Model the fold of this input.
Amino acid sequence: MLDATSHERVSSTQHTLPNIAEGILVLDENKFITYANEAAETMLGYGTSYTGGSHLIGVPYQRLSAAPLAPLNGAPAKIVEGALRHKNGRWLTVNLTQSHIAPNLPHILVSFTNSAEQLQQEQSLTHTQRLAGLGTLTASIAHELTNPISIITTTCHAILQDMQDKSLNNDQLAQYTQMIERSAWRCIRLTDTLRGYTRQGKLQLAITDFAALVEDALLLVQQQFLKEFNVSIHTDLDAEHQTIVCDPNRLTQVLVNLLTNARDAMQPAGGEITIRSWFIAPGERDVQLPTVRLPEAITAVGAFAFAIEDSGPGIAPDVIEHIFSPFFTTKRSGAGTGLGLYIAREIVEQHNGRLLAENTPHAGARFIVLLPQQ
Done:
């Protein structure tokens, strides 16, 4: 039996749970369900009754769960994968946590989310950010395609004119053909780079030249940044260490996202962006990151590092701790999705790497990517 204080604590907890998006179950000391919020009812296929009651109250938890509750020994709650039985009899794969409502209370709070829905939401976030970035990239591609297309049309016109004048010889024709071919291949490369940026699916790791990735990213954004935003981009790449193992399309997206973030941070005046790369040998402290304590998993094997630095105002202290959160943005309403840095970090972590943000000593911000050696 619960005393008045304990009963009040349980009741107070239950009053805060109805509108939470996660499924919530409260179990008594005998592991019977005493409370289920609307999200739990919906995910398990029961719904709520018209009287506001729950169809799950009084049901033993073991009837729903594929595995018994793990012992609670006072350790912090951990997210584990489990399975709960849906009303239709099928098992629903969930991520769940369990904890006591309060110390010295026997009641247990079980929270869970649908693993499949969570994965779908994460994939949707990635797709949303890609679509948002396509507007910028499409405008940049339009700028880049103008020159080769103009060369092709002008050269074709010159060929026709020389044919009419009967002045076209083999040497001129060969020269014209080479000009058309070079311009056509530039168009193909532009569209291939854009197609790679928008491609989804699992990581496709390959031995990659980092300088080529930078070139692809600059192909997408450099001219537009300079002409429309007064932002110039410079590179300072480690020529001795350029080969990395990565998904080249995904890492190109990281570069584009970080470059776009740096561009926006310097508006409306514009400024300069520098892309740097360097190698961190196994067991060595990185002299370029004196204030950063590198994870043991990276220092043990060494890492390839690159950074995007801008000449903007830097990152405010109250912003830097939230800067990688999904939908967090300091831009005006409608000017950004707040997903660019979040997606960049997700991609880097898929490569077992880390994405860090800091202010540089000479003003401006710096985003550092650390990729462990494969």
